[in-house]
Design goal:
With 184 residues, the chain is mainly beta. It has helices at residues 54-62, 75-83, 151-154, and strands at residues 15-16, 18-24, 27-33, 36-40, 45-50, 64-69, 97-99, 105-107, 112-124, 127-139, 144-145, 148-149, 158-160, 165-167. The chain has a single domain (15-179), classed as Electron Transport, Fmn-binding Protein, Chain A (Pnp Oxidase, Chain A). It has three helices and 14 strands.
Amino acid sequence: MKQISLGAGIVNYPMPIALIGTVRDGRANFMTAAWFSMVSYQPARIAVSLGGHLTSDSIQEAGVFSICIPSANRLADVDYCGMVSGRKADKSEVFTVFTGKTGAPMAEECLLNVECRLSHMDVNGMDTTYIGDIVDIYADRSVLTDGKVNLASLNPLILSQQETKYYTLAGEADRAWSAGRRHR
């Protein structure tokens, strides 16, 4: 097989979907985002890259945010939160809001929520990456197996940005950091 150059641009790889929870004027706001990732094991840090959104302003002002992982059964609500700006619509009632230690809003309907305190920001062209210290992680009991999050039970949404389609997990293929041992 021959590799074909596609040029510089957005890489089409599976991106899990999250709701970024912030508070503005005492009201919760949720924005759909796919550009997030773990960035440090110790200290535990996660990052999200955003353009000029209400969510960006809110993170900078409050210094806290959440990354809430929705299940596929909430697709319509999640997509709505990505289509409509918090500057134009009150999205505080789309989900049942709870807070943890920092006051960052999280969504009960999301079966996995990560509470963050802003560590620092990095401007990257048109976007800003917000790096958050993970303060706590909250998981619904329904997605836990032996105290760990079971991805099949979580049933997360995955974005194919170039196709502009959402996907779900089709099932388990093999164990990470184990399957490679069989390579010859």
